[in-house]
Amino acid sequence: MLRHLSRGRSGQQTKSNRQLRITGDLQQMLDRIMEESGNSPDIVIRQLKLGGPVPAPVKAAIVYLNALSDQQAINNFVIKPLMEMDPEKVNVYPPDRLIQYILEDALSLGETQVVKEWNDIMLAALSGDTVLLVDGSDQAIISGTAGGEWRAVNEPTSQLVVRGPKDSFVESIATNISLIRRRIKSPDLWLESMKIGSVTHTHVAMMYMKNSADPNLVAEVRRRLQQIQIDGILESAYIEEFIQDKTITPFPTVFNTERPDVAAGNLLEGRVVIIVDGTPYTLILPTVFAQFMQSPEDYAQRFDISILMRVIRYICFVILLLGPAVYIALTTFHYEMIPTLLLVSLMAQREGVPFPAFVEAIFMEVVFEILREAGVRMPRAIGQTVSIVGALILGQAVVEAGIITPIMVIVVALTGIASFALPSYNLSIAGRLFRFYFLVLAGLFGFYGITLGLIMLIAHMNSIRSFGVPYLSPFSPFVPQAQKDAILRLPIWMYGWKPLMSSSQQDVKKTGEIKPMSSGDSSGSSNTGQESQGDSPLNRSHSQKEKDENHPQQDGGRAQQDEGNSQHNGHKTESRKQEDQYEN
Amino acid sequence: MRIRGIGLLVILCVMLPLSGCWDAEELNQRAVVSGIGIDRGPGNNNYVVSLQVIIADEISGKIGRGGTPTTVYSAEGRSIIEAIRKASIQVPRLTSTAHVRIVVISEELAREGISDILDFLDRDSDIRLTAKVFVAKEGIRALDVIAGLSPMGKITAYTLAQKAEISSREFGANYPVEVDDLIRDVLVPNSGPVINGVDIEGSVEEVRKKSNLEATDNLGLLVMSNLAVFKGDQMKGWLNEQESKGFVWLRNLLQNTSIVITPGDQGVITLDVHRGKTSIQAILKDREDPVFIVKVMSQLSVREMDGTVDLRDPAALNEMEKDVNEEIVKNIKAAVQKAQSLNSDIICFGRTLELQHPKVWKQLKSQWSEIFPKVAVEYQVDSIIRNSQMRDRSFKYNLKKE
User: What b-and-e string marks burial along B263-290, b requiring 16 or more CB atoms within 10 Å of the CB?
Assistant: First the structure.
């Protein structure tokens, strides 16, 4: 199950193949393809004879994966033009010249590329592109014919709004990029692409606004992405775990969204968006705590209503953290703080209940978590059953049986509802975890424990950084300008020219430098060898930045692109081609 | 990282002994006390402490057995806390006094002195300083008050506290006295606190029975009584109703009261005071002999009238205002005279003098107990009748015309 997570073993194999080049022997190449793919029936090898029979037809073959390719495009724009080539030229040209001729005069496809490496043709074939091999040439032509089925763009499932765009990212990276590009039609929106995963070769794209994103941040993100060594990337969460700052915390330090409007909005605020092929969840960084309390809906409603909603979300977060803990503290330690008549009612409820309030609370919270987990995992058809069992049997019967007090059910239910009121699921998971921590503290020390816990929690949150940005900004450090869009949401015309909330550029400057991934850390990227110990990561990213100035992967600078440069960066060789593919 | 983790653990462990909150106790392990009564032991110097404990499931639970909503445990001890500790031989749960709303002291004990009780109430970390204090009138014990049941409201202590508040708001012959008021007032030289009295109307025996609640006119009922005057920590005597009203005027605590006047041939006229303001001024004609001027301003409304006065006529109103002034002066004068006769400066003339003429006060302070009973007081009352509710003239006015 977790094989794709293992690092190194299968990576070695790829490394050994890296040096392999294409030989001129067509039959040998085809045999090797079949051998390496285990004679897989979905690999289609179509052998062709180009040119006239005199003096001898040139042997060629196209290779593609029939499930991932656009068959019609192959038929019309690859095979057909090949068949209709001028035989006089085909027969006369030497193989390498022939490749050039096919590329320039025959193929009627936008994305084409000449490659020499063996790995490139395998990867292209497995990505759905068509590989054209010509006998006698040590080059191959890759034509972009990737197609196949993807889920259509439909409504987001986890980040819903009443008013606002209804489209959502899908699993296809090309579609996802188009959804963002459609919103930001600016050459300032730059795109870099790379392949991560030594087995899966997953496309990972990184988007940012060249002029508003901090170049240090972009360089740092790029560096961390390049350091990832893993067999497979199946979800953006894999990337998230590799690139986030190495702090032990349940709080999410990378924002994720399945909404293109959120991604676009964050791009405009100077953040970097990472899109991973195969998942609708894109990553946004750096992020701050306040961002998890915001919903895209906030900007679609009147500002005063949005402020109310945000305040309610913060209250919900506090209820989520402290609800049961405060109940425990009040009833077992600080009964004097309860208004007398309420106390009488609570006492009457507790009369005859066998367990201490703490055990009761833990029990109900665990039951609630079980119900929630069951509700998420179960087949949809039996959802009704679980909700009936959960609501009726556990809620009512447990009270009637005198095991749990009714007020405990109220407290736990309120906490549960509060956890769903948060717009961000991963923050509410963190809150759920901390709720148990506060419960134990309250059970041991009452409000004293809760106070200590809160002090530690806030100290901890202050220690978290997301790519150098303090997690609690703009509250701590306090940025007065950014308060316009933190808990408050003032009318948009008051923001001035640029949105203010924790604009990464501003905050990164304030805190000095981006916190690097500590190279000694055993988790995360393990290629300590690449980085000499004395070399400051910041310097490193600076020097890299210079290199990147006219980097071919940067999409915005298409006009100035320099093909010759494309070799200088390891596994990004074929990215030029991908760029074109994304444009479609 | 590991060092930090260990450091954190150490800090956590160090925190444990710091904690002041080791009194974790489940709610169903607590006996919540709503009222405390303190009597003298029969024929000895011991305290008998009675605790009114709330039986929660009789009040709001589904599993009540039809018993009384509160029960009383009492025990005797040489000190109050000893008696409370001793009560645990009767109480199955932890006696928790944080919700004590009333403290009742028997008159006998009050006359002997309450300084010990005050120290206990002040020192105890649970009992709040906002608990209300009462003196049980001669003839009934504090235990009887604590044991009483109330037809309205299930917890007697709470209903008694409410009675103190409501009667001060409606009738104006008392004001709620709390523990911290007592502690403050007890320290004023040649003065002392004033405490609400509580009495039982009807049968003392019946008021504690559940059967008493089954009739509409109860055989026994806890009622607010007049104010008890202390000097220092010892009770000196009771104010009567008129004196109590006058005293509330003097302390500028009046919220609402009614004044009845009988102006000549006009029958009985009742007026409500809705705003009253009293200020006391010390005038030194002679250094040894201060004169106090009590200035009262009040706004009234006519509530009830048996006569045919035309309230549209300013002259008639002026006449009535004069009568009202006399009535108020009568009340206040009675209170002042009573305080002087008991030689307890409950009106705080001494405090007034200290604030207004601190130097003079320093000289007179030592002789204040001799000066106070003879001190001259002048009264200036200014009343204004602001409204007459829904009518100006009574319907009788028209009757007379015809």
Answer: beebeebebbbeebebebebeeeeeeeb
Euclidean distance between CA atoms A129 and A150, whole angstroms? 16
A37 touches chain B (CB under 8 A): no
Q: Can you say how many angstroms the Cα of residue A299 is from the centroid of all Cα atoms in its chain? A: 23
Handedness of CA A206, A212, A215, A221 (dihedral sign): negative
Q: Which of residues 39-98 of B touch A (CB under 8 A)?
A: 54, 56-57, 59-61, 63, 96, 98
Cβ distance of B27 and A344 shorter than 8 Å: no
The token duo for A31 is 């045999």
* DSSP structural state of residue A422: S
Q: Does B32 touch chain A (CB under 8 A)?
A: yes
Which of A192-196, A239-243, A560-564, B193-197 is predicted least confidently?
Answer: A560-564
Cβ-Cβ contacts under 8 Å between A and B: the total is 81
Q: With a CB-CB cutoff of 8 Å, which residues 407-426 of chain A face chain B?
A: none
CA nearest neighbour of A541 among A286, A222, A242, A219? A219
Q: How many CB atoms lie within 10 A of CB A87?
A: 15
pLDDT in tens, B138-188: 889 999 999 999 888 889 999 999 999 999 998 888 899 999 999 988 888
The secondary element (H helix, E strand) that includes residue A143 is strand A140-143
Structure confidence at residue A190 (pLDDT): 92
Check the CA dihedral A128-A129-A133-A139 and report its sign: negative
Angle A565-A571-A575 from CA coordinates, rounded to 5°: 60
d(CA B241, CA B173): 7
- Counted residue by residue, chain A has a size of 584
Length of chain B measured in residues: 402
Q: Is the CB of residue B315 less than 8 Å away from at least one CB of chain A?
A: no
Rounded to whole angstroms, the Cα distance separating B144 from B45 reads: 19
Contact yes or no for B89/B98 (Cβ under 8 A)? no
Tokens of A246: 């190495």
Distance from CA of A250 to the nearest CA of B (A): 16
- Determine the distance from the C-alpha atom of residue A227 to the mean position of all C-alpha atoms in its chain, rounded to a whole number: 16
Q: Is the pLDDT of residue B296 over 90?
A: yes
Pairing relationship of beta strands A202-209 and A272-276 according to DSSP bridges: antiparallel
Query: Do B27 and A333 lie within an 8 Å CB cutoff?
Result: no
Residue A153, CB-side half-sphere exposure with 13 Å CA sphere:
17
Distance CA A201, CA A203 (A): 6
Q: Of A72, A35, A499, which Cα lies nearest the Cα of A267?
A: A499
Interacting residues of A533 by C-beta distance below 8 A, sequence separation 6+:
A519
What CA–CA distance (Å, rounded) separates A494 from A485? 10
Pairwise CA distance, residues B402 & B399, whole Å: 6
Q: What is the pLDDT of residues A414-455, one digit of tens each?
A: 998 999 889 888 898 999 999 999 999 998 888 988 999 999
Interface ipTM: 0.84
Which of B28, B98, B155 lies closest to A353 in CB terms? B28
Contacts of B6 (CB under 8 A, 6+ apart): none
Measured between CA atoms, the residue of chain B closest to residue A356 is: B26
